[in-house]
Structure formats: structure tokens, C-alpha cells
Design brief:
Elements: H1 3-33, H2 36-47, H3 55-63, E1 84-87, E2 90-92, H4 95-105, E3 112-116, H5 122-130, E4 133-137, H6 141-153, E5 159-162, E6 176-181, H7 190-194, E7 196-207, E8 213-221, E9 224-232
Parallel strand pairs: 3-4, 3-6, 4-5, 6-7
Antiparallel strand pairs: 1-2, 7-8, 8-9
Helix pairs in contact: 2-3, 3-5
């Protein structure tokens, strides 16, 4: 093969690769922006009007396409501001509750976050918009795989999804500046406290008197831990070794 022909083919391959990258970016942009007007209305009517003031949190909710994380049959209801079933007896919380969790957790752009109970990956995507890196754990294999695929498709490459009992956290990647737990406990799992960085915030539903969960923010300082109770919320119970629900089978 002549040098000129090899050079021409090299230019052609380079151009094709550049075109493929441009098309992929274009598809990703369409995925992120479709139904943007509906998301905007949801943010205003179901979240901001109920008291959420954090601009980064509101912007994340406006950016992430919630309908991409639920089954097609429920996609039309994605911006109604209510919880949605995600299969396997699980659900994703309403946008207001997720926004309040994030507002309490105060994730920063340099923070590393741990999410216990990734579910369909919607809250994971919100964290990915707000943090430098996110480690998310989901113990149901079908949900973990679906979350991983959706997050990759939408371009959230700063997310790592693990499939195992997350009630003990993910110690290999700690300490974490932010930890959010999707399911309720009677007390904070001790491994999560150990994995919280000094100055970090851990937000989870804690079950109080009467058995009703209440969002609680635990902050760690050099002097120890301080807990602040917030709003009541609907929540599943946390399973696993350090949870209070059905134990997760150990390998």
C-alpha cells in the first residue's frame, strides 16, 4: 500500500471517529434536554414552591431527565412530582423529598459521595451533577444493572455502581463528604458513621416514635457527631446486615 493511500485512509478514519464522537455528544444532549419544559414546571411547582432554595439542587433537578429512569409505561407521569414504582417492589421517591435530602447533604463540586440504595439511578444522577465522584450501591442486581446502563447512556461517567449489601457502606472508597441512604433505619448504621469524613454530612430516614421515618442529617466534626431532625418522609426499610429490613443473602 502506498504512503499516500495509508495517509488518506488515516485521515478518513480520524474524520469518522470525530464524527462518531460528535453524534454521540448530540444524542446525549438530546437525551438530557428532552421534556425540559416539563422538568422546569416540576421544579417550580413541586419543589421550589414547597421551600427548596438551593440553586445547585434545583438546577440538577432541571437537568436530569427523570423519565429516562422509569419504565416506559410510567414515563408520562415522570414530572407529576410523585413517587414512582421502579419494579421489584421498589420505588423512587418524589422529587421534593430527593431535593430536600440533597439540600440537607449540601454536596459540593469537589465532594465524593456514597449513595446507599441506588434503585433506578435517578438520585444517583442528581448526585453526579453536584459532586466530583459518586459511589452508589444497589443490592438488587436487575436494578443495579439498569441504573448503571442508564447513567452511562446519559453521560454520567463520574459514577460507580456496585451490587452488594450497602448497609455497611463501601469502605474501599471512603471517607465520603456526603452519604445519602434511601431507606429507613432505627439507628444510623455504624459503618456509615466510620466512613463519613470530618466535616461530612449523612442524610437518611430515621424511624422515630410511632414508627414513622423522619429525614435526619448527621454531621461529623472533630468533636464527634451531631444529628438534626427534619421533615417526615415515606420510605422503605433498609435491609442488609446493618439495616432493619429483610436480610440480604451473604455470598
Amino acid at each position: 500500500m502506498s504512503t499516500g493511500r495509508r495517509r488518506a485512509e488515516g485521515v478518513h478514519e480520524s474524520s469518522a471517529a470525530a464524527l462518531n464522537e460528535a453524534l454521540a455528544a448530540s444524542v446525549d444532549e438530546r437525551l438530557r434536554n428532552d421534556r425540559a419544559l416539563e422538568r422546569g414546571r416540576m421544579v417550580v411547582e413541586a419543589v421550589a414552591r414547597r421551600g427548596i432554595r438551593s440553586a445547585p439542587v434545583l438546577n440538577a433537578l432541571a437537568a436530569v431527565p427523570r423519565h429516562r429512569f422509569v419504565a416506559p409505561v410510567l414515563a408520562a407521569a415522570a414530572y407529576e412530582g410523585r413517587p414512582l414504582a421502579i419494579g421489584h417492589g421498589q420505588f423512587t421517591s418524589d422529587p421534593y423529598t430527593l431535593a430536600r435530602v440533597l439540600e440537607l447533604a449540601r454536596p459540593g463540586t469537589r465532594d465524593v459521595a456514597l449513595e446507599v440504595g441506588a434503585g433506578c439511578g435517578y438520585q444517583t444522577a442528581l448526585l453526579a451533577e453536584l459532586c466530583a465522584e459518586v459511589f452508589a450501591v444497589e443490592w438488587l442486581p436487575a436494578l443495579a444493572e439498569r441504573a448503571r446502563a442508564t447513567l452511562q447512556r446519559l453521560g454520567h461517567h463520574n459514577v460507580h455502581v456496585g451490587c452488594f449489601d450497602g448497609s455497611g457502606g463501601w469502605p474501599a472508597h471512603g471517607p465520603y463528604n456526603v452519604i445519602v441512604v434511601a431507606a429507613a433505619c432505627e439507628k444510623v448504621p455504624s459503618p456509615l458513621l466510620h466512613q463519613l469524613a470530618i466535616g461530612g454530612r449523612l442524610v437518611l430516614p430515621l424511624v422515630g416514635p410511632g414508627g414513622k421515618p423522619r429525614l435526619t442529617c448527621v454531621e461529623r466534626s472533630s468533636d464527634g457527631f451531631t444529628a438534626h431532625k427534619d421533615a417526615p418522609c415515606a420510605s422503605m426499610t433498609l435491609g442488609g446486615r446493618f439495616g432493619m429490613g429483610t436480610p440480604v443473602a451473604q455470598a
